[in-house]
Write a structure and sequence with these properties.
Elements (H helix, E strand, L loop, with lengths): L3 E2 L6 H4 L12 E3 L6 E8 L3 H9 L1 H9 L4 E8 L4 H12 L5 H13 L1 H5 L4 H14 L4 H9 L1 H16 L4 E2 L1 E4 L2 E2 L11 H10 L1
Parallel strand pairs: 3-4
Antiparallel strand pairs: 1-5, 2-4, 3-6, 6-7
């Protein structure tokens, strides 16, 4: 399984107007607060490898580990090309005050439709695709556009990118489990992920 490479410099155009550093807060988390394992995922909404992980692994992760109180999952929002689209997709997942569970539900749908969202190759096409998806969720075009245009989203993602850079993250998806990077690429497969989580739970 490959990873999509990103760099802080690569996001410079997107975040140029928000050069001040802020805390990497506001990230979405699901799972029990007292879960023995805390899994942090660094992912971009436009990364095809992230989309593949969510297509193949997320249902298993949620059903067998998150919903059973054994894993708490936090999403750290990153950007890969096109960065403005990545931020827009994250913003729509959060639109209208979505809670953490709804955010992850929406993000899963966005990952599943990633190719369709990107296929036009234009921001107008992306906008129209996100309007249509938002309508399925009961969101108006005005709500979706407001979320996409919210500068707070850019600042939040910038903080996440800076936090990731400080930890040496260079690509998406990247995972940390209880503070340690998951180095085994088998984690990105539905066959390889459970043994790694089970071994951590046994320690």
């Amino acid at each position: 399984m490959l990873r999509r490479t990103f760099t802080l410099a690569g996001a410079a155009t997107l975040i140029a107007g928000n050069a001040h550093a802020i805390e990497a807060d506001g990230m979405m988390t699901i799972g029990a607060a007292n879960a023995p394992l805390h899994l942090i995922e660094y992912a971009s909404a436009t990364c095809p490898h992230c989309a593949h992980f969510h297509e193949t692994n997320f249902a298993l992760l949620k059903t067998n580990y998150i919903d059973t109180g054994r894993v708490r999952l936090t999403m750290r929002e990153m950007v890969t090309p096109p960065p403005a689209v990545a931020v827009a997709m994250f913003q729509v997942a959060r639109c209208a005050g979505a809670d953490d569970a709804e955010y992850f539900r929406r993000l899963g749908i966005l990952f599943g439709r990633q190719r369709a969202i990107l296929e036009s190759g234009t921001m107008a096409g992306v906008r129209d695709a996100l309007f249509a998806i938002g309508a399925e969720w009961g969101l108006s075009n005005e709500q979706v556009w407001a979320a996409m245009s919210d500068q707070a989203g850019i600042a939040r993602v910038r903080a996440s990118i800076e936090e990731a850079a400080a930890r040496g993250v260079q690509g998406t998806p990247t995972f940390f489990l209880n503070g340690e990077r998951v180095a085994d690429p088998a984690f990105l497969t539905p066959e390889g992920m459970p043994p790694i989580l089970d071994a951590a739970l046994a320690n």
